[in-house]
Amino acid sequence: MATTRILEWLGRLYIWLLLAFLYLPIVIMALMSFNVSPFYQLPFEWTTEWYASLWQNDQLISATSNSIEIAVITTILCTALGTAASLAFYRYEFRGKKFLQALLFPPIAIPWLITGTAMLIFFFGVGIGRGLFAILLGHVALALPYVIVVVSARLQTFAPELEEAARSLGANQWQVTRRVTLPWIMPGVIAGGLFAFAVSFDQFVVSYFLSTPGQTTLPVEIYAAIRKGFTPEINAVSTIIIVVSMALMLLTARFFKFGGEK
Amino acid sequence: MAEHVATGSRSGLRSALPLLLPAYLWLTVAIFLPLSAMVFFSSMTELPLSGKAWSFTLENYATFFSERLYLTLLLASLRLGLEVTLWCVVIGFPAAYVLAKVLKGRSREAIFLLVILPFWSNGLVRIFSWAMVLREGGILDTALNAVLPFKINIDVMYSYPAVVIGLVHSYVPYMVLTCYLTLQAIDDSLIEAGRSLGASRLQMLRRVIIPLSMPGLVAGAALIFVPVVGSFMEPRILGGRTGTFYGTVIEDQFVAVFNWPLGAALSFILLAVVLVILALTSPVLRRAA
Amino acid sequence: MAGVQVSNLSRNFGAHKALDDVSIDFADGGFYALLGPSGSGKTTLLRQIAGFDFPDSGRIAIGGESVERVPVERRRIGMVFQNYALFPNMSVADNVAFGLSVRGEAKATIASEVQRALDLVQLSKLGGRRPHQLSGGQRQRVALARAIVTKPRVLLLDEPLGALDKALRVDMQIELKRIQREIGITTIFVTHDQEEALTMSDRIGILRDGRLVQEGPPEEIYDSPKSEFAATFLGDANIFRGETTGVGIRLPDGTAIAARAGATLAAGAKASCAVRPERIRIAIDSGSADQANGNVLRGQVSKRIFAGNNSTYFVERDGQTLKVIVQNTGADRLAAGQEVLLRWSPKSTVLIAAN
Predict the structure, then answer these.
(1) Upstream peptide bond of B22 is cis (omega within 30 degrees of 0)
(2) What are the start-end ranges of the H helices in C166-237?
(3) Is the per-residue pLDDT at B288 higher than 60?
(4) Is A56-255 assigned to CATH 1.10.3720.10?
(5) Among A169, B151, C67, C271, which is least packed, fewest CB within 10 Å?
């Protein structure tokens, strides 16, 4: 028994070391964004001037508003299209269903570098070109499979008899969906929507290839800034991003338990 | 019930189509057509829209095979992928095991969430945060010099190890996630049964637990290896001048050299490599799902 | 209310004939049971009548109106599902109100109709509860109230009592029957439980492999089964196989078994006779003379199973095991190995043509 307890104790210690590995850089970056020295010199002296100077940076502000705008539209489109597709997969049997479901895999599994460059070539070729619209096109496509997977997982817990019962009581397809099915899958739809927002808001690679100097998103702007040299402003804006995206995922976890239904 | 399944099949596609069409049309325009277009463009001499005359050619692919540089870089990227994947297994599997079999109840849920949370947060920013830690005069340097009695100079930044550290940090949560899911599915009584038969902990691990968690390990490995081979932002930020890999060369073709047909060919070769890997692992992945 | 006529209904799922030329007339206000083993097509038939699935050929009429191409939501039927299918996101009252509300009824009408339906199923006080706060029996009642509140033309029940335990099931059988009589609705009830079918219904239809095997009042099917399958699926029966003699059959060993008068089969054809175990009297073989106008067989008791109010004897005779059920009257019990005489009246013997 003694060995068991020691092993358990070691296990816990190990997990905390892993968490330290995962979070320490982020915490340090956040701390540095409040440090007076622009060259990250210690000792640490508290300041919020880097955050204040963010407000003066028009480029960053416009990129941020682009990012939010695209993420919001992506969320709305993905939840609508994704929920509809999930319902179709849930309700109907047809030839080629397995194939269509398998097609959701490539957007998730193929490296964004490939997808991004392919989009760039294609959008250029057909005249869509680069810019915010192209970025939106790409983001929706990248986030859609996640929404379908999440909503479908929720639908697995839904009993088909409920739809049949509603129909036997005289409800038409729309009434069935709105009053019986949607209320049940709502947690999944919300989680899917938050996923879509996070995928879009954090997306860098695809946005990078599809952006133009005037029409860009926050992560692309940050990448450009990093390559020019590290500045405390980047720390500040990065800290804001990471806080926002982690908060979003915590919110998502309230609705969708990763690796299993609540 | 078989009858239910058959019920829908008659009018199934007709009813399903209006619901599926918007989503799949979108995926077609933004994913499937672009991927097909890439094949097309990769066999051209010039972009058709550039105004210059163009023709079909295999030259872009010939370039890949004739210039040692590209092959070398692809091999370097594959090696990077292997190394990062290996580290993720070494670090992630024990963590998944502790989460699934040692921790219990609410603390398990909370810590699990904490482990996978970074994975869903901004990857670019997380890579950037390592720059703060690894650079000369950075936190690691300062902290070690404050503790150690002698002066050392930590400058891991802009090196191969820095790239590996950043990528492992980025992808290890994935391995924890997939391994945790398969480990959790292993019945505790199975382990107790093995122990009651006289197997030691190590024997149980080697002969029961690891074979049973193979689907999770393979799934995690595939899902890490593939994006790492195609990474370019991480080597650029953390690798500096040493950070030239296959991904960064592709990036260059599109944003610096503007040789899109060559970039497309290089991308397509990478896609082929990726597809082969996914095809090799897909039987295991399907079992995991 | 309305009767339901099903005529020549067929439905194939690929090569599988789920329904094969089925015709039944469900009279207005009657209580019908569709009985059969799983895969017999009884659920398929119910779903066809409901409108969840459409036939390949044949006709379904509700109240004289052809509905076989009308989708479920416009058929004005009420259905109770095996697992009740109560909407988990709605209260009991909202569940019951659903059918009226999707029809756009006025709020006041809905409220009073819902209250009336809940009164009928004796759940007036539970309108505010959620389905998960109810017991199995209560859920069953809510499902029933929800199905009848819209005043459907026909009530369809898909093994509605299957999920309940035995004692509750008997209560619900009585309750269901009471409510059905009170509102006088044509009711079609799918079950695989023969006892449920016998006790509850006015008429029973037995299905097998997508075909209607026999249809009629419970007594008629039990007393005069038309096939070996009907005889053995509804109740228990001893089956003797042989050749017809005109008044009965002759077994391969030459023994004659006399059957009830009425059935006429060509002499010499293959046929069987069915006898219910409770119709056979069993007695110790004392070597006494055979009764002239009865069927008599000799056999040996191999086993006795005691079930309180009765006992079942297993009697071996010429390689066949016969079952005899004897009421517990306190008379002497027979032991295994005992040589016995089995006697029964030709009136209790049904002649069945071989299929």
Answers:
(1) no
(2) 166-183, 194-200, 218-223, 228-233
(3) no
(4) yes
(5) B151
Checking DSSP bridges between strand C65-66 and strand C57-62, what pairing results, if any?
Answer: antiparallel
* Residue C276 DSSP one-character state: -
CB within 8 Å of C287: residues ≥ 6 apart: none
Binary contact (C43, B6; C-beta < 8 A): no
Asked if C14's CB is within 8 angstroms of B3's CB, the reply is no
Distance in angstroms (rounded) separating the CA atoms of residues B35 and B232: 19
What is the Cα C11 distance to its own chain's centre?
Answer: 22
Residue in B with minimal Cα distance to A254: B113
> Are A168 and C74 in contact (CB < 8 Å)?
no
A111 to B25, B170, B247, B268: CA distances (angstroms): 21, 14, 10, 11
> Is the CATH code 1.10.3720.10 the one for domain B67-288?
yes
What domains sit in chain C, N to C, each tagged with a CATH number?
4-223 (3.40.50.300), 237-353 (2.40.50.100)
Q: Token match 């049997």: residue?
A: A93
Confidence of residue B287 (pLDDT cuts 50, 70, 90): low
Residues 48-107 of A with CB under 8 A from B: 77, 80-82, 84-85, 87-89, 91-97, 100, 103-104, 106-107
Residue B49: pLDDT band by 50, 70, 90 thresholds?
low
> Is C190 touching B (CB cutoff 8 A)?
no
**CA proximity to A82, closest of A153, A133, A172:** A153
Half-sphere exposure of A137 (CA within 13 A, CB side): 27
The pTM assigned to this predicted structure is 0.80
Question: Residues of chain C whose C-beta is under 8 A from some C-beta in A?
Answer: 50, 52, 71-74, 76-79, 81-83, 85-89, 98-99, 102-103, 146-147, 150, 156
Report the pLDDT value the prediction gives residue B193, as an integer from 0 to 100. 83
Please, which pLDDT band fits residue A256 given cuts at 50, 70 and 90?
low
Is A182 touching C (CB cutoff 8 A)?
A: no
Q: Which of A19-23, B113-117, B229-233 has the lowest mean pLDDT?
A: B113-117
pLDDT in tens, A224-238: 888 887 778 888 888
**Does pLDDT of C264 surpass 90?**
no
Q: pLDDT value at position A262?
A: 35
Question: In sequence order, what E strands does chain A have?
Answer: none
Report CB contact under 8 Å: C79, A180.
no
* pLDDT score, position B50: 61
B124 and A15 in contact by Cβ < 8 A? no
Give the whole-number percent of chain B exceeding pLDDT 90: 33
pLDDT, tens only, A93-128: 888 899 999 899 888 888 999 999 999 999 988 888
Interface predicted TM-score of the whole assembly (ipTM), two decimals? 0.88
Angstroms from B17 CA to nearest CA on chain C: 19
Q: Helix and strand tally (H, E) in chain B?
A: 16, 0
